[in-house]
Fold:
Amino acid sequence: MTTLPNQTEKKLGLVIDLDICVGCHACVTACKGWNTENYGAPLADKDAYGAEPVGSFLNRIHSFEVQPETGPAQLIHFPKSCLHCEDAPCVTVCPTGASYKRTEDGIVLVNETDCIGCGLCAWACPYGAREMDPVEKVMKKCTLCVDRIYNDNLPEEDRQPACVRTCPSNARHFGDLGDPGSDVSKLVAARGGVDLMPEQGTKPVNQYLPPRPKDEEIDVLAPFLAPVTEDPKGFLGWLGKTLERLG
Amino acid sequence: MHPARSIIIFTTLSGLGFGMLVFLGLGMPRVTGGTAFAFFAIAYLLAVGGLLASTLHLGHPERALKAFSQWRSSWLSREGCLAVATLLVMALYGAALVFAGTRIAPLGWLGAALSLGTVYATSMIYAQLKTVPRWNHWTTPALFIGYALTGGSLLCGQISLAVPFLVVLGAAQLAVWQMGDKRFAHSGTTMATATQLGGIGAVRAFEPPHTGTNYLMTEMIHIVARRHVGPLRIIAFALMTILPWLLLFVLPFHHLLAALAVLSHLAGVLVSRWLFFAEAEHVVGLYYGKR
Ligand code: SF4
Ligand code: SF4
Structure:
């Protein structure tokens, strides 16, 4: 049913720390790997070794440059995957009922055997979180690794999304954002987590932690390394003066 | 948005077909027997042909029946249900006209209303998308219905109606182009809201996630298509309103001229429908620093 549940028991989702992400794309690779071998149709590539490779990914890392009024520009790596929105427009537009939001944990999924591959859900998502598989022609999206997080066959530490488990800098966190006492909710409260494109009215569950303010003086050693004199002495000094006279 | 041929043909032809069914349902013109058959055949060819074209862009057309199930929430599903209901009702109404020579008026009115409903549902598939600010406005359904009524009146030979429709449609299309150009800026969605980094400073896309292209970019970010928008608007406008108006109203009436007017209108609508998609910008482009 593509009507949305009024309320979900949990709001499972990700918290992504833009201050910490180093843009290594490890989560992209882990996601592609896990979701090619497990739940649903494999995430395909086309022309992988050719001139124009394309493929479906559920998680992609953008990089943005932000130029403050003063000081140097900042480079911010920006992972983006499905935000498992509470008011998910991708679900309500689906004509077949293939797209749905689970009442028990709020995860947004696609039932691939019902999907006709019309692509309307991808049009409805403001975040670009859905991609049509180039081979299977069904809609693919982040499942929050629904086949890991409840999987008793995996050791406990692996029962989290592949991206979170893999991130070498701990920039990704997984948990119940509907429970104010959860670690992720506390993190969001402490760091002022934000919704992406709040004006689109999707009420995303995933939260982004903004980069912390940068220190004014970046290099702590700089004061000790101040140049003693601007004028070179000795041979260089003589050379400089001679050249100036010639010029 | 990517101007996919199958969708342009589908929305244009089925719009015309359902527009014709509106007038046939209202008994304009009052036809029976063989003439009625000819009119209904054209309307059904357009409507059904358009619907079939639309299945060409599906990844799994063999599952298309499932698309009738979600009419409670989905405009795409509603469109399918309304289209089938319209075609069934109008088939009964048409059969009575063709074979029995009787006009069951209430059935015709119902069919006309359903036809309008189908066109409305088609337009709402686009108008509902907040992600495409140019479409997300009541003028989208208004224009789609305007196109259906104008094309329908032309094809049904309702010249006295077609002429005012052409004038109103032309004015409406100009206004929609004009207003649509500003709507992305008015939507309030920017790179700053997309990244929430605007508080630090001016945001610029530095590096995309990959060197090649992807589904999102080919489907939703179509910058190349937008280069020739100016001249195409003029061509669309001339073909769909000015030329048919000249042929029908200024020159003395002749069936050949009327047929030319219909063809010119059809060509103009196709161009304007191409623009409808090519000019529409999706907010996801902001993440790629493009629109
Ligand atoms: S991020 Fe996009 S795909 Fe995911 S729930 Fe929200 S609207 Fe749907
Ligand atoms: S592509 Fe599949 S999941 Fe998406 S709207 Fe169409 S049928 Fe539903």
Remarks:
- The longest strand of chain A covers residues 59-67.
